Amino acid sequence: MYARSQDLPGLTLADQARLDELIPDDALQGCVVHVVGEYDGGIRMVDVWVDEPSFHTFQTAHLWPAVDRLVAETLATGGPGPAMTPGSSVDFSGPGRSGRDVVGSQQ
After folding, report:
1. 29, exposed or middle or buried, with CB in 10 Å at 0-12, 13-18, 19+?
2. Which residues, 6 or more positions from 13, have their beta carbon under 8 angstroms from its beta carbon?
3. Contact assessment for residue 42 and residue 8, using Cβ atoms and an 8 Å cutoff
4. Residue whose C-alpha is closest to residue 22's, from 58, 70, 80
5. Are 46 and 5 within 8 A, CB to CB?
6. What is the pLDDT of residues 10-20, one digit of tens each?
């Protein structure tokens, strides 16, 4: 399993929703869970993938092109573009565990 937590200052949930529209559903093969929430001044994303290579394939083939398109579309309409500033990310890797392996699980 591979998990990534990323803080993106300056982005809004509306920016995230538009970005989601630009990414095809089949691009998320290998994504176990994707959670986005607001914090003061930005959004935080937490993703869990089946493995790190799956995430990096998604990132280069789908995410970065979608971000480029989002910025270009926003600027073309006279908007300021998403107020993206450098954020921080934390990556985690490990074998993962299924719910049935957790002590006290009701599965």
Report:
1. exposed
2. 36, 38, 43
3. yes
4. 70
5. yes
6. 888 998 999 99
Q: Report the top-level CATH class of 2-96.
A: alpha beta
Q: Edge to edge, what strands does the sheet with 88-93 contain? A: 31-39, 42-49, 2-9, 88-93
> Where is 38: in which H helix or E strand?
strand 31-39
14: exposed, middle or buried (Cβ count in 10 Å: 0-12, 13-18, 19+) = exposed
Sequence ranges of the domains in the chain: 2-96
Q: For residue 71, what pLDDT is reported?
A: 82
- The whole-angstrom separation of Cα 84 and Cα 71 is 10
Rounded to two decimals, the pTM is: 0.72
C-beta atoms surrounding 76 within 10 Å: 9
Q: Which residues of 78-107 are buried (b: 16+ CB within 10 A; e: fewer)?
A: eeeebeeeeeeeeeeeeeeeeeeeeeeeee
| Coil, strand or helix at 36 | strand
